[in-house]
Amino acid sequence: MVGPGHCTATWPADGRLNLAAFAPALDPRDGPVAGSGPLLPLPLGLGVRLLDEGGYRGPRLLQSVSHDEPAADCLRLGARLRRLGDRGGLLVMADGSACRTLRAPGSLDPRAAAFDATIERSVRDGDLGPLRAMDQDLARDLLATARPGWQVLAGAMPGPAPATEILYADDPFGVFYLVAWLAGSA
Question: Are the beta carbons of 169 and 178 closer than 8 angstroms?
Answer without folding.
Answer: yes
